[in-house]
Amino acid sequence: MYDMVKQWFWYDWIMFLIRIISSVSLFLTTIQFQDQIPMPLWGMGIWQLVAFSVPWLCLLLNYKYYLLTEIVFSGGLCLFLGYLFPEAYLSFLTYAFLIAANSAHLSYRWSGPISIVLIPLLINLLSHQNNYLIMIIHIGLAYTLGFTFHLLVVNHKQNEIIRGQNAVLEQYLSQIERITLAEERNRLSKELHDTIGHSYTSIIMGLETMRPQLSEKAQEKGLDPLLLLARKSIEEVRGYLHKMESPQEKLSLLQSLQNLADEFQANTKVQVHFRTYGAEYQLPKQAKLTFYRCLQESLTNAVRHGHSTEINVSVQFEQWQTRLEIKDNGTGMQKWQEGFGLNAMKERAINLQGHVSVYSEPSEGTVVVCTLPKQAELPEEIIRLLLVDDQSFIRESLRTLIERHKDLQVVGLAEDGEQAIEICEQVQPQLVIMDLDMPNMDGMTASKIMKQRWPNIRILILTTFQDTEQALEVLRSGADGYLLKSMEPRELVETIRLVYRGGTLIDQDMSQKLFEKIQLDKQESSLPNTNTTDEYGLTPRELEILQLVSKGLRYKTIASKLYLSDGTVRNYASTAYMKLGVRNREEAAKKAMDAGFL
User: Is residue 461 within 8 Å of 481, Cβ to Cβ?
Assistant: First the structure.
């Protein structure tokens, strides 16, 4: 009851004061005419106390109970007093006002006739008076005033709801704008990093490549200023990326959710209780954003649709998952309707292998639960790289480009094949990026020696010119990839990761020329068969895909079975076809069968 009273508005207190004043005045009048009342004073006091308290208590529960008890107890008291004193019908004016003021929905259709017509008629019959019309007029006016007050209250409530909804929407829009800006900032920073930053790096490498072909004077007047401008510009890009970091993103999950709850409570005047269970651990950025959006959407829906006045938010950090629960005391609903906001919440959670559940019942509020699996912060697998090129500026440019990525680490630099073998012996890299044309020992010879000594090492050839004879010989010597230095930096990084995981990738233009070359050689002389994969240089992954292809499986089915993308499977298959010297899957299956691979 105390909680209900705390939620009263000014009109609730006005009607309560009217009720108190009317009851006290009636009790004092009863004392004054005690001698003319055929009932003990204590009996009249109890009756008036019941007429005051019972309808009021029923009003806190349901307006229909109030109307019935008001008419029975208060109306009965006025009938008794009107029987004794004809002028006592005036005491019913206050109750007629209260009955009209508290008549909700269509209850005035029956409360009005009972108050205005029936009760005055009974009072007139019991008191044997002929002023029935005057009673109807007086009580009708009181009922009309009460109904007018009721309309005023309804209008005020609707205005309060509208103001509350506007406050919620303004807070919601401000949060949406903040999140949208943060996501756009992240997107722009990534685009700047992956496009402009990498483009400047490529320009610097290209300009440095031109240095041997220019005179010293041309280098001083033309090349060096351009290089200085490019390096200055890339530093400015890095500065922009640093400034675009949002301070909000540096907050922990609890801090960001607590700030959101506090801001929502300040703007909407709705009580939001925030609790946490378990020790907080670091979550990925996308997980934090998912929880943030889930809380934001749930708070807004709780007030807009559920008309909640109190919301409980709890965050549980469990061993295997993180759980956010939002429970409100709103109206709830029989059938929950999923709108755009809830669908967006569920989609975000599903993308992180989590889920969002909603439980709602009429008059019991709504509970929203968002659960995401804990993503253990395992240390990222570091790919150890050795860069081999006879031009120092290319080595340094590649190093600068590669070491921007946390999972790539350059552990050595070599200027020729001999030095590369020595460094391999010392640092044991996992992948070697090697040029072909170098003094002392070229890349092809170094590749063969490395593959003999360290069969598990991955070798990626990065050269300047397209030479099909040379490329074919390099691949047969054991290299795992053949790319041109003119390729996009982002493509180079992805190729490094692909080759490290067992893939083989060849520049697209070069692969076409190699295929044409192999077909030409095939026409001149048939390639010898072999029953081992070493002669063709097939990797375990390529052989696995070749076996699945021979069974008639489609690329999409193979991708699903091996948890790879469709494009990755096609790349593996194309490389395997090229190594086998075949055109399609049928020829590949036959060639592999003859060679004893299957």
Answer: yes
Work out the pLDDT band at 89, boundaries 50, 70, 90.
confident
Residue 484 pLDDT > 90:
no
| 436 contacts 470 by C-beta, under 8 angstroms | yes
Tokens for 433, please give them: 């990026």
* Amino acid identity, position 243: K
CA distance 431 to 497: 10
* Cα gap 573→556, rounded to integer Å: 12
Those residues with Cβ within 8 angstroms of residue 90's Cβ, 6 or more apart along the chain or in another chain:
138
User: Chain centroid to CA 528: how far?
Assistant: 57
Cβ proximity of 415 and 392 under 8 Å: yes
The sheet carrying 355-360 orders its strands as: 271-277, 310-317, 321-328, 366-373, 355-360
318-345 pLDDT, tens per residue? Answer: 888 899 999 998 887 766 566 656 777 7
| CA–CA distance, 272 with 258 (Å, rounded to integer) | 10
Handedness of CA 238, 239, 244, 245 (dihedral sign): positive
Q: Which residue has the tokens 């909603």?
A: 358
Quick one: pLDDT at residue 486?
A: 64
- Predicted structure pTM score: 0.38
pLDDT surpassing 80 at residue 189: no
211 secondary structure, DSSP code: G
Ramachandran sector of residue 81 (left: φ over 0; alpha: ψ -120 to 50; beta: rest): alpha
Residue pair 560/569 in contact (Cβ under 8 Å)? The answer is: no
Give alpha helix (H) positions in 454-539: 468-476, 489-500, 508-524
pLDDT of 6 reads 56
- Tell how many helices (H) and how many strands (E) occur in the chain: 25, 11
Distance (Å, whole) CA 419 – CA 139: 110
In angstroms, rounded to a whole number, what is the distance separating the alpha carbons of residues 460 and 448?
13
Average pLDDT over residues 457-476: 75
CA 420-422-423 angle, to 5 degrees, is 65
Cα separation, 378 vs 536, in Å, equals 37
139 pLDDT above the threshold of 90: no
Q: How many CA atoms lie within 13 A of 288 on its CB side?
A: 21
Per DSSP, the three-state class of 505 is strand
> DSSP for 9-70?
-HHHHHHHHHHHHHHHHHHHHHHHTGGGSSS-HHHHHHHHHHHHHHHHHHHHH-HHHHHHHI
What token pair was written down for 6? 């705390």
Q: Choose from 200-204, 320-324, 504-508 the range with maximum mean pLDDT.
A: 320-324
Which residues have C-beta within 8 Å of that of residue 47, sequence separation ≥ 6? 73, 77
- Select from 75, 50, 66 the least CA-distant residue to 102: 66
Per-chain mean pLDDT for the chain: 79
pLDDT in tens, 346-359: 877 887 778 888 88
Which value, in Å, is the radius of gyration of the alpha carbons in the chain?
42
Mean pLDDT of 252-276: 86
In this structure, the dihedral spanned by the alpha carbons of residues 418, 420, 421 and 427, taken in order and rounded to 10 degrees, is 150
